[in-house]
Each structure stands twice: as structure tokens, then as C-alpha cells.
Fold this sequence. Notes:
This protein is mainly α. It has 2 domains: 15-111; 155-290, Glutathione S-transferase Yfyf (Class Pi), Chain A, domain 2 (Up-down Bundle), CATH 1.20.1050. Helices cover 58% and strands 5% of the residues. The protein contains 16 helices and 4 strands. The protein has a 4-stranded parallel β-sheet with strand order 2-1-3-4, sandwiched between helices. Helix 7 (126-135) packs across helix 8 and helix 10 crosses helix 11 (192-204). It is globular. The protein starts with 14 loop residues before the first helix and ends with a helix.
Amino acid sequence: MTTCYDPKDARYLDEADVRAELTRVFDICNGCRRCVDLCSVFPTLFELLDRLGDHDAGRLTPAQQDRVADECVQCKRCHDNCPYTPDRHVLRVDFPRLVLRTEAMQLAAGLPTLRSRLRLQIAGRADLVGRLATSMSSLVNKLGGVQPPFAERRFSSWFAEREDTAASEGPATGGGDAVTLFPTCLVEYRLPHIGRELVAQMDANGVACTLTTAGCCGAPWLHAGDIAHFTKVARRNVETLAAEIGGGTDVVVAHATCRHVIGDDYPDYVDDPDVDLVAAHTFDAVEFLAR
């Protein structure tokens, strides 16, 4: 058994070991097929295996293995559905983390094309791209056909104006909870109305809001396998978020993927005594409101 999901493990980027783990997990998935209707990943895998008379996952080529892994978007639905996860079974299957490992191995081995590497350099700098794109959103949206389109006004601009208005009206009365909002790149630059609606829900529940100064969570780097860039971003955000939590607030994230990255992935990659504090005090918006 070659199970290895720890990015600090010496085997993590070893291509032969990754390929062996892909074979092991693909074989387990083929015998189960419980996740066949969750996304495109598993129908693609099963179609490839069905072409083989013996369904031997070890006969898949590296290119076929990579094709399956490349279709994963890290939604984690398979992990929630899987009966063989590390916390449930001795087979210790964690498909999303195996894909992260595969992406990291591919990058370390120089397998991605130049075009893919250039695309990563752009996608990874989400805050820089977002600031530039929102400053000329009409042109960018028209030329690029991006979906969802970039907003004309960033969420943080709306939030700053809201704070200025509140300050001019005098101090608020009454107690209540307080949270630090982590809007995410999606809400900050593309869908600010989600952030405005979240603030409205917090107001309705008597929860005071401030806005984090942390940047992009680093998911584009992580999901493309660039461990070095992701770890750098994560370490910086842990320092920022820990200080904000130390001021007496929880962190509420407007997008579930970013909450998962901060709460579940940061502890795997960042050696910092505050990383567990940040993970414990970071919540998805619905998760927080449900309490």
C-alpha cells in the first residue's frame, strides 16, 4: 500500500509512487462505483476501465491516469460519499487529496505545457488580476467572455462605504457577536452581491462585521500543484487571520471552497503554531449562520 497524502512526505512528488497510488485507488473505485453520478471524473475512469477486458487499473497509461485526475475540480463530493476514507476504512482512500498530489507531481516533473504554466501564473495572482479586471470590467468582460463576469465595483469598496456611513450615523447600540468576513476572490471581484446579502444576514442576526485584510486563499496555486507558491500564500494568510481572530472574532468565508482550503488544507502545508487556531475559528457562511 503506497498511501501518501502528506505533502511533507519524501515520497509525495515521486512519480512512480504517485502512479502506483493512482492504480490502487482507481482499482478500489472501480470495484465500488458509488460515485459514478457525482461528477465527470468517475464516468471517465470507468469508461477507460470498461475498455479493458480485465478492468485492470494497472494497465492504464500515465496519460489516461492524468486525464482522470485533470477532470477533478476539488468539490469533495466523492470524499463525503466514499466509504473508504482514512477516517472510515483501512483502505484509506482520499481521492481529492490524491488529485492534489498528482497535480503537484506533474508540475515537479515538468509535465504541464508552457501554456498551462503561463495560465497558472495568471490564475495564481487572483488579487492582482481581479483589481486590474474590475477597474476596466466592461472591456475585460467584452473581450474575454469571462464567466461569471467581473463586477464594476468590488465588494470591499461597497463595504468601506458602508462602514463610513455607519460611522457618520454614530456608534451602534447593543451587544452581539462579531465576525471577520473573508469574501473570497469570487465575491470580491465577480459576485459582490453575494457578499452584500451575507452582510444583510449578519445584520439581521445581530452580528457585527469587519473585513479581513488577508488576500486570496491560494486555491489556484494548490489545485495546480504549485506547493511552494501555495505555502507562501497560506503562511501569510495564517499570520493575518490569527491576528484578526485574536481580536475576538471568528472568520466567516463566503465561499465553501475557500473555507475548505483555509480550514482543512492550511494545516497540511503550513508549519505555524497558529494554523490550528485559524482552522478552528474559520467557518463557511451557512455553517456559521446555522449555529
